[in-house]
Each structure stands twice: as C-alpha cells, then as structure tokens.
Design goal:
By secondary structure, the chain is an alpha/beta fold. It contains 14 helices and 12 strands. It has 2 domains: 128 residues, Aspartate Aminotransferase, domain 1 (Alpha-Beta Complex); 258 residues, 3-Layer(aba) Sandwich (Aspartate Aminotransferase, domain 2). Helix 1 runs antiparallel to helix 9, helix 2 packs across helix 9 and helix 4 packs parallel to helix 5. The structure holds pyridoxal-5'-phosphate.
Amino acid sequence: MAIYLNNAATTWPKPEPVARAMYDFLISGGANLARGSAARRDLKTFNLVGDLRERVATLFGGYEGGDPRYVTFTSGVTEALNIVLKGYLRPGMRAVTTSMEHNSVIRPLRRLEAQGMELTILRCDGKGRLDPLVLKRRLEEPADLFVLAGASNLCGAIQDLEAVAEICRERKVPLVVDAAQTAGLLPHDAESLNLAALCFTGHKALQGPQGTGGIVWRPDFAQKCLPLVEGGTGSRSHEEHQPDVLPDKFESGTPNLPGLAGLGAALEWLETEGIDKVRRREESLGERLLEGLKELPGVSLYGSSEMEGRLPVFTLNLKNFDNDALACELARRWGIETRPGIHCAPLAHQTLGSFPQGALRLSPGYFNTEEEIEVCLEALRELASPKTATLRSGR
Ligand SMILES: Cc1ncc(COP(=O)(O)O)c(C=O)c1O
C-alpha cells in the first residue's frame, strides 16, 4: 500500500466523482465544444464548459460579478503563466518577480529577458517570504508587471498577498498570481485584490485531473495581451484573424473536455466538502508531521519551523543521506512516496540554503491519515538512527 506524501506535485487519490465524470464524458458525453450542431450532446458539452467557467469565476472572485467570459481554460498553470507573461511583456519593459518562484515563472521570464526585457528578482527571506517593504522600494522604479506565487511549492510559505496587492495598486503595476499551491486551500478574490491575472492549475488542491487549469483575467489586462496560440475557436469561422473577444481569444483548438468534466466534478466536491475543512484537515496533519520532524535527530528543515503562515509542504535533508537515496529508501521499504531534488525551483532552493544538493519534500494531503504520518515519522526515525547513519556513510 502506498503512503502518498507528494500532494504538492499532484493530489492523489482524486475524489471518486472526478473519475466518474471523466468516464461519463468519454462514454456518453463526448461531443466537441462549439464544433457540432445543436444536438443534445452538443448542448451538454456547451453547458458543461459554461457551468465550469461560472464555477471558476465564483471560486476565484472573478471580475464583474464573476463574469465567466473572463475565465480561460489551459492545460495547467504553466501554460496559463506563459500565456499571460508572453502575451503582455515586450522588449524594453521591466518585470519583477521573487526568488521563490517555480520555473514556470522563471523560465518564460528568462526567455523574455533574452529578448530585451528587463528582469528584477527580489530575494525572499530564509523562510521563503517576501517582505512587502522590499517590493515597495523596488517598485519605486517603473515596472510593467509583478508576478509571484501565493505559496511556495518548496516550504509552503504563504505570501502576504493583500499587502503586495496594495503596493501594486498604488504603483499601478499589474499583479499576476501563480495560485498553483493555494487554489483549493486558501480563499482567493481576484477582483478585490485587483489582480491582472490569477493563474491556477486543476490537479493539485483543486482535486481535479492533470491537464487542466486556467486564468481569471482582469478584463482591461486581457485586452492588452496577445494570444500565445491562435487557431480554430469554433466561433467566427469565416474570419481569418483570431477573435479578440473572450474567452475565444486565448482558447484555440479543442480543449481537454474529459479533463474539464473532471475539474467540474472536483469543484463541486470541494464546494460540498468546504475549502476551510480541507485546509484545517491538511493543517492538522501538517502540524503533527512538523512536530515529529523537529524531534528527529539529524534533520535539517528548510523554511519556517512553525505551521503558522504556511501550507503543509516541508523540505528537509537527513544527515548522511543524499535526498535522492532517502526518497528511494522510503519508497522501497515503506511505500512512502515523496519528491527529492530541486522541485523545478532552483532559485527557491538557493534562497532557503538547499542548493545545489536539493532536499526531500513531504506534502500530506486531505486523504492522508494520522497513521500514515506516524509511519513516515517512524521510518525517518529509523533511517536517522546512528546505526543506519553509520551504515549509510560507511564510517
Ligand atoms: C508554485 C508552482 N507553480 C507552478 C507549477 C506548475 O504547475 P503545472 O505543472 O500544473 O503547470 C507548480 C507545480 O508544482 C507549482 O508548485
């Protein structure tokens, strides 16, 4: 039996209705979106996507009372961030970000930098947090966009989005949020924070399938972005140019409809279960794990050593263990699934002091049990014992 502690990579297992909705779509739904007639199955698909757009707009505090037109579906947050960053930033502009970002932010920005955009990377503190005063100071020089993740995929540090949003509003700098780790766990209100774009992924705490995600746009910002991909939208087919209207502008090609069916079921599940309940459950598991980790000899924990202001995502190294070998040992002997390495976030590891060796990440999720947390702690305790450590180091 697997003990799955890699929920920051993707949550697992998914709630059952998610799999059922995908199965039903493939077996009895299955019509394409806006590329058929007005047959019942066509309308079913049309409504499935329309209802989900509304659900997403409501969940994230979308603009104009949650107008579903300002929701774009993508294959995940990586595509969403690429659409936003490459759609808006041009040579000569200046983008600002932080040292805790995932490569889905850093790599598109480095590409744009190579093309003549200026890039400023603000260093976060040893707990992975951005001091809003640092941002305030660095936005005294003109900037065209600020992008940051709501919480770190490495140490779970939650950023002070309200303070950041206030500064960006004052300086009139469009704020883009990577909500990969926070969507489904923390409340989001794009309109009240005046976010230019909120980018999310469906397969993490939103509990949906892989290959889903999207953007909630501020309407005027969406107007200023060029689409990354152009092609068939099922609308205005007589026109040779990409439609400028939303959602069609950013949604060319047949979407991942089985995935969207699953995401719809996931959001319905989340609404019934309640985001607060999910968060409290994960926090309580995280609390126990953290407490146990702090008592283990030879553990170096990165980021904050408290549960406050973080999600239950922990990275550590164990004395005398390479984190890769540690992950293999946990999987081989106890069936514990984790993630070692650099987690697509080299600058974040540099910020926390775990570069270049990387670290082992443990990220419990809603479906873990207290017993599983205890098994993990017991396994680490055994591996950390002086006897095992001596064996590992060969000394
Ligand atoms: C903070 C953050 N941003 C972006 C991503 C990329 O997500 P996806 O692979 O779903 O596009 C991740 C995934 O781990 C993440 O944690």
